[in-house]
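chain below, 127 aa
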Amino acid sequence: MAEKRTTYKIQDLGGIGEVHIADEVVAIVAGLAATDVDGVASMAGNITNELVSKLGKKNLSKGVRVTMEGVVTVDLSLNIEYGRNILETSKKVQEKVKSAIENMTGLEVADVNIHIASVDMENEKGK
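prediction:
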């Protein structure tokens, strides 16, 4: 049985065809942009995503929810590195995610909501 995917029309090429993008693609772009910010240890996900990751199947949209109602709203669940300024790191994530989605897809991003799920103590242990 085929998986149900939500897609958004991002361009009509005037008689040549249309361009549609799956919401999971937008989620992957957001997740990759977020984890590229210094201070973000990883994306937080639900238990199913954690199990899938441990089985070797990397879910690049883990910890990301995308909704589209004319504009894009992104909700990110992050694990932040211990000792990082949460407000500064979150602002950098918001800016980077908004920019990445808008530049890659042409979709307008209205909100990037950050949820800090945990603090990663791994680096603190080695000190």
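The helical segments are 23-35, 47-54, 86-105, 122-125. The radius of gyration is 16 Å.
thats it, cya
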